[in-house]
């Protein structure tokens, strides 16, 4: 398909603006630690990072498709796609991570069902990277069976008083706000008594403890809530309708987790493997991988990764045309988890024992491999996604 | 965009209606049982001509619709659903692409209008051995004055035994060259290969076949471009057929899971089967996106088009074989009987995966094209 004139203009203007405004440091390949998540507790890694966020936020391009009045760029899907293509072409780093809880999940949900007051209050600071959010969904006894949350919200007239425990609240210790599912109707059937609330992490009674993971990182936390007051204007959707709100948000989650990662925009791991082979004496001029089993397994992974990027693109196109289904969210999530696990495992294999050192490592491959184990568990496990496809898409009967 | 517009949806719906009424899977079964000499429905091919499908890729100036490869995938996906054997691949896609890319106006004028009308069948002879290796054509052209002599063998030539003219690849002075050879030319012997999927295939032998210069599609230097374009188009269209096949065989399996009862309940209520079926769905959706992306990439002349073609063919082959193998298993004993159509899907999936390079071939090609 050829660009028509207005599309060409937009592309040219966008490229010119990016070339002029994206600092050179923000056009180097991104390292994990330098991704920008924003929030009041955020420390910028460099002036360039701060400047880049400010310039993009001023243009509304941190949230390109949100309306301008709420801090977005007011772009169409097609324009946003061009913006992204041009950013990729110039190697511009995202000024603010698109997959954050705020930008990727809560923002679109507030846009869809929030009150005007909620939109005006919460969206602009999200788009500017001034507030960071975490997700208070899972509890020790409510994981895959999320509807059995027990954190209790007691009605006190103009506000709720909340008591309970949340777990797997990613980066709660770095977040300013939490959106949470709480039980407001203890006597109603389990899906019907849940409310979706927006909770200020600075409120008295909020206690956050990071959990150490097998990767050695502490991305997840336990969050204890003791007599935490939440005003009723911070309920998103209707009281006792939180389950439906969470479904809207979860479909954003699966979309944003997956569309954010274009594996093949990164360097081919086959080429990395070839580099390592060439480091050996007598192999400097090798043209291909001599380990044909490894070569085929890497290529099979990369073929799937290319197919996955096509799938992400198609899911975006279908969504823009209003043809999106729950199916695509689950399909993306399943493939993303599998591919990232495969990729990180192959990287460890390519590195060999050099990559196993835990302290002062040559590469963070070991930690990334361990981190990837969470991909098929967090945000609705692979088994839950397969259940969703079986029931809602294929129409298979219940036992 | 990797989704269909209204016009494309209309084409799809019309075709689906036509094929499910004219050539449902029972049509393939009947051709097989009768050992039909054509191996296709000549009536349907004529209809394809009347409705414009045969000329999807033929430029308008030669009487075709002049549409894109992306549009051609819509046609292939639909006949994949019904396992309809059709000269669409050999004639409307591969031969048409060869002629158009050659730029040989003499041959284009002669063949393209006939193709668009569904009046002739043409074949493309690429393979010489049991494993796809198009750089080794297994056929040589020797020039002597105005005469060109062809010697060599070809195999797995789709529609080779019914084609009026066969486009044959070979080496002329060490360079890839394509020639248009009438099937009844002296020195050409054709043996029909009865394949397990009951789709057309033939082995061709060329012994001192005398051709004239006018039968060469181009100068030898251009032969490789022609071959590359034919392979890209052919691979995408076979991949699209495989997506249709996979989609259909999964639908039939889901229907069976809902209807078949054991232990007093539908077997589709067991999670062990639900998750396997759902995984097939996920694989097919990903492969479908890869096929659409590859078609767009070739249409737009994208830099990574060749890579995307191999990705598409590999993923479609895997998805179709995976879905049909699971279909056999989930149909239990019935799945291995010839009474049910499931076996026909499995057979076609296996042959079409192999056609123009199987998943292994294309995965290896991804490594080569990426540079490792």
TrEMBL record, chain A:
Residues 240-394 form the Acyl-CoA dehydrogenase/oxidase C-terminal domain. This is Acyl-CoA dehydrogenase. InterPro entries: Acyl-CoA_Oxase/DH_mid-dom (IPR006091), Acyl-CoA_Oxase/DH_mid-dom_sf (IPR046373), AcylCo_DH-like_C (IPR036250), AcylCo_DH/oxidase_C (IPR009075), AcylCoA_DH/ox_N (IPR013786), AcylCoA_DH/ox_N_sf (IPR037069), AcylCoA_DH/oxidase_NM_dom_sf (IPR009100), Mycobact_Acyl-CoA_DH (IPR052161). Belongs to the acyl-CoA dehydrogenase family. Residues 8-130 form the Acyl-CoA dehydrogenase/oxidase N-terminal domain. Pfam families: Acyl-CoA_dh_1, Acyl-CoA_dh_M, Acyl-CoA_dh_N. Residues 134-228 form the Acyl-CoA oxidase/dehydrogenase middle domain. It comes from Pseudooceanicola pacificus. GO terms for molecular function: flavin adenine dinucleotide binding; oxidoreductase activity, acting on the CH-CH group of donors. Keywords: FAD, Flavoprotein, Oxidoreductase. GO terms for cellular component: plasma membrane. Its cofactor is FAD.
From TrEMBL, chain B:
Residues 5-118 form the Acyl-CoA dehydrogenase/oxidase N-terminal domain. The keyword Flavoprotein applies. It comes from Pseudooceanicola pacificus. Residues 221-367 form the Acyl-CoA dehydrogenase/oxidase C-terminal domain. Pfam families: Acyl-CoA_dh_1, Acyl-CoA_dh_N. Belongs to the acyl-CoA dehydrogenase family. This is Acyl-CoA dehydrogenase. Its cofactor is FAD. One of its GO terms (molecular function) is acyl-CoA dehydrogenase activity. Keywords: FAD, Flavoprotein, Oxidoreductase. The lineage of its organism: Bacteria, Pseudomonadati, Pseudomonadota, Alphaproteobacteria, Rhodobacterales. InterPro entries: Acyl-CoA_Oxase/DH_mid-dom_sf, AcylCo_DH-like_C, AcylCo_DH/oxidase_C, AcylCoA_DH/ox_N, AcylCoA_DH/ox_N_sf, AcylCoA_DH/oxidase_NM_dom_sf.
């Amino acid at each position: 398909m050829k660009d028509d004139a207005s599309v060409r203009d937009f592309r040219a203007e966008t490229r010119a603006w990016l070339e002029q405004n994206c600092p050179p440091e923000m056009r180097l390949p991104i390292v994990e630690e330098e991704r920008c998540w924003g929030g009041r507790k955020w420390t910028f890694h460099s002036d360039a990072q701060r400047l880049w966020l400010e310039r993009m936020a001023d243009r509304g391009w941190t949230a390109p498709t949100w309306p301008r009045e709420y801090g977005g760029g007011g772009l169409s899907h097609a324009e946003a796609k061009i913006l992204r293509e041009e950013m990729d072409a110039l190697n511009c780093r995202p000024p603010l991570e698109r997959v954050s809880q705020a930008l990727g999940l809560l923002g679109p949900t507030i846009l869809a069902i929030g009150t005007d007051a909620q939109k005006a209050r919460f969206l602009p600071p999200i788009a500017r990277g001034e507030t960071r959010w975490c997700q208070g969904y899972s509890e020790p006894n409510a994981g895959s069976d999320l509807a059995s949350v027990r954190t209790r919200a007691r009605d006190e007239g103009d506000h709720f008083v909340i008591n309970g425990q949340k777990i797997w609240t990613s980066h709660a210790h770095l977040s300013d706000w939490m959106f949470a599912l709480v039980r407001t109707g203890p006597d109603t059937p389990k899906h019907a008594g849940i409310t979706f609330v927006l909770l200020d992490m600075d409120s008295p009674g909020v206690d956050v403890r990071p959990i150490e993971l097998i990767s050695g990182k502490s991305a997840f936390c336990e969050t204890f809530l003791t007599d935490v007051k939440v005003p009723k204007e911070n309920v998103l959707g209707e009281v006792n309708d939180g389950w439906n709100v969470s479904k809207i948000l979860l479909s954003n989650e699966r979309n944003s987790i997956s569309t954010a990662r274009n594996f093949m925009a990164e360097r081919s791991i086959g080429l990395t493997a070839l580099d390592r082979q060439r480091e050996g004496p007598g192999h400097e001029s090798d043209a291909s991988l001599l380990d044909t089993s490894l070569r085929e397994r890497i290529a099979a992974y990369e073929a799937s990764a290319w197919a996955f990027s096509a799938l992400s693109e198609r899911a975006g196109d279908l969504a823009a045309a209003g043809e999106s289904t729950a199916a695509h969210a689950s399909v993306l999530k399943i493939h993303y988890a599998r591919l990232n696990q495969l990729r990180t495992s192959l990287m460890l294999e390519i590195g060999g024992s050099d990559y196993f050192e835990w302290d002062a490592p040559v590469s963070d491959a070991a930690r990334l491999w361990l981190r990837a184990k969470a991909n098929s568990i967090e945000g609705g496990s692979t088994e839950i996604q397969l259940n969703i496809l079986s029931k809602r898409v294929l129409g298979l009967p219940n036992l | 965009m990797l989704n269909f517009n209204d016009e494309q949806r209309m084409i799809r719906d019309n075709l689906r209606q036509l094929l499910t009424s004219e050539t449902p899977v029972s049509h393939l079964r009947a051709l097989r049982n009768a050992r039909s000499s054509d191996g296709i429905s000549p009536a349907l091919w004529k209809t394809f001509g009347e409705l414009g499908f045969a000329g999807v890729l033929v430029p308008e100036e030669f009487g075709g619709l002049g549409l894109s490869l992306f549009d051609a995938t819509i046609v292939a996906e639909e006949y994949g659903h019904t396992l309809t054997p059709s000269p669409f691949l050999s004639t409307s896609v591969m031969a048409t692409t060869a002629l158009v890319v050659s730029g040989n106006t003499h041959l284009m004028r002669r063949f393209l209008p006939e193709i668009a009308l569904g009046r002739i069948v043409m074949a493309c002879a690429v393979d010489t051995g049991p494993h796809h290796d198009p750089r080794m054509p297994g056929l040589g052209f020797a020039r002597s004055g105005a005469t060109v002599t062809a010697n060599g063998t070809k195999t797995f030539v789709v529609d080779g035994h019914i084609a009026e003219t066969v486009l044959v690849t070979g080496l002329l002075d060490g360079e890839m060259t394509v020639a248009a050879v009438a099937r009844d030319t002296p020195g050409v012997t054709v043996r029909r290969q009865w394949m397990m999927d009951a789709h057309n295939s033939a082995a061709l032998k060329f012994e001192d076949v005398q051709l004239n210069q006018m039968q060469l599609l181009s100068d030898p230097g251009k032969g490789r471009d022609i071959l590359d374009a034919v392979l890209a188009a052919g691979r995408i269209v076979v991949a699209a057929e495989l997506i249709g096949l996979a989609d259909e065989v999964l639908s039939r399996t889901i229907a069976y899971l809902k209807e078949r009862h054991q232990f007093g309940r539908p077997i589709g209520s067991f999670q062990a089967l639900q998750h396997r079926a759902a995984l097939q769905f996920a694989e097919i959706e990903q492969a479908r996106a890869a096929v659409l992306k590859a078609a767009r990439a070739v249409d737009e002349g994208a830099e990574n088009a060749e890579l995307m073609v191999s990705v598409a063919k590999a993923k479609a082959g895997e998805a179709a074989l995976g879905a049909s193998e699971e279909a056999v298993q989930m149909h239990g004993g019935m799945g291995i009987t010839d009474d049910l159509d499931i076996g026909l899907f499995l057979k076609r999936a296996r042959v079409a995966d192999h056609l123009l390079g199987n998943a292994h071939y294309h995965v290896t090609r991804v490594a080569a094209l990426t540079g490792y």
